[in-house]
Structure formats: structure tokens, C-alpha cells
Amino acid sequence: MRFGLAVLAGIAVLGVSACNKPAEKTDGETASAFVPSQTPPKRKPGLWEQRVSNGDVLQVSRICLDEATDAKISFWGSQATRDMCEQNVFSSRVAGGYQFSSVCDMGSGGKTTTSGVATGDFSSKYLIQAESSTVGAAAPQMNGPHKITVEAAWQGACPEGYKPGDMSLPGGIKINILDLPVPGKAG
After folding, report:
1. pLDDT digits (tens, 9 = 90+) for 162-172
2. Are 64 and 50 in contact (CB under 8 A)?
3. DSSP code at position 137
4. pTM, full prediction
5. Long-range contacts of 53-57 (CB under 8 A, 24+ apart)
6. Where are the beta strands (DSSP E) in the chain?
7. What is the SS3 assignment for 150?
8. CA angle 112, 116, 119 (to 5 degrees)
9. What ranges do the domains of the chain cover?
């Protein structure tokens, strides 16, 4: 069960990841997508502790980042999730952060629609508050509406033995997020 929660939380975090595709205007709205000429916030290199909560369950994980890894798995312009998302929109800048929405394929036929706000300085802390809804996922607990809060805080340099992308999960599980398969990409 814990590993399932870890995977669900990891997917939730990826669900707020960007696709770097142009926004579509709908019914006169002037929504804008992240475009390459804008500079997205970058997380400070080092070890980040992430506290992911859905209101009932809290999962704490840690991830080691360098600049290149942050560019690949950040919420904005993520290479790791580019092929997973059909839409990603930044509708406006808010005090200290961004509003966003995305529609992403989470694999196994599941599609997640997410919207929320990311705030913080992104060098010592950030906060994501999002609502998502998943349909068609193979794991029944992933389907339906979910409120997700991600609180992240910079912890310092990555510990010895950690390389960029290494993530420690509850129960002593350690993975490298860069090694995870991405739906839509051949392996």
C-alpha cells in the first residue's frame, strides 16, 4: 500500500508538470501558455523535501536536484512529461507564483486534469495547491477527484551517495525519477 501511495504521489506531482505545448484560446479567453521566451522558476540545486498530502494521507519524500535534472522534471517545461500532456496552460501570474492547468496521460489509459496554484521563492520553499481528476486509470484509487498539496523545502546539499534524480520514499525505497518509464515514449 505504501509503495502504491508513493507512486500515486509521484504521479500527482508529475500531474502538475508542464507539457510545453501552446495554449488554446477558448470562448474569448486570453489564457497564455508558458513559452520559451519566459523564464520559469528554477529550484535551487540540492536536496528537497516534499510533503505531498491529499487531505487524508501525507507522504514525505526527498529528491536530489541539479540544474539539468530540475529542467527535466520541473513543473514548468518538463522534458520528462512533455509526451504525457496534451495541454498545459499558465492562466496568470499570482503573487509569488503561478496559476496552472494541465491535461496529462498518466499511462495505463488514465487521463488526469489538474489545476492549481504554485507559490514560493523556489530556492528555499514552494507550495502547490491543486485539484485533479483522473479517469480511466488501471489503479482504481487513482480515479476520481483529488485535492493535492505539495509543500517543498530545500534541505541543503544532496547527501553522499545521492545523484541527481534520486528520490527517497517512505519505507526506505530509493528510486531515480529519471529512470522511470514515461508513457508515450519507447523505452
Report:
1. 999 999 999 99
2. no
3. -
4. 0.72
5. 53/148, 53/149, 53/150, 53/151, 54/12, 54/146, 54/147, 54/148, 54/149, 55/147, 55/149, 57/5
6. 46-53, 58-65, 85-94, 97-107, 110-120, 125-135, 144-156, 166-169, 173-176
7. strand
8. 135
9. 2-170
